[in-house]
Amino acid sequence: MQTDNKIFEDLSKVATAAMGTLAGATKEFSDVARERMKEFVGTGEISRDEFDAVKANAAAAREAVEQLKAEVAALKAQLAGAAAPAAPARKPRAKAAKPAGKAA
């Protein structure tokens, strides 16, 4: 025998409505977050001239880095060649302290 329980029926309706509201809020949050991310990243409003200028700067920077790498390698080779036959360095002698009463 089935009985109609008004409290459970009302709770069921409230839960169903809450789930629908939650689903709508989730979609709204997702849409707002997506829109904010698009604003943050930008929509690609870069002119061709700006792009070409940045590309040229990047190429010049790469070229400078390669040149500096070559210079560092050459300096390391010079140091390696000069450091091999070098004698150990001497410690400098400590100077004797002068007496306080004498003029220099």
Written account of the structure:
The protein folds into two domains: 1-44; 46-82. The protein is mainly α and 104 residues long. The protein has helices at residues 6-41, 48-83. The chain has two helices and no strands.
Q: What is the element layout, followed by pairings?
A:
Layout lengths: L5 H36 L6 H36 L21
Number of helices: 2
Number of strands: 0
Strand content: under 5%
Which geometry do the CA atoms define? Answer: elongated
Radius of gyration: 39 Å
Helix-and-strand structural type: mainly alpha
Low-confidence stretches are none
Please give the share of residues in helix.
55-70%
> Major sheet: size, sense and barrel closure?
none
* Count of all domains: 2
Span of the ends, CA to CA = 122 Å
The chain-level mean pLDDT equals 81
Order of helices and strands: HH
Question: Outline of this structure?
Answer:
The protein has 104 residues and is mainly alpha-helical. The chain is built from two helices and no strands.
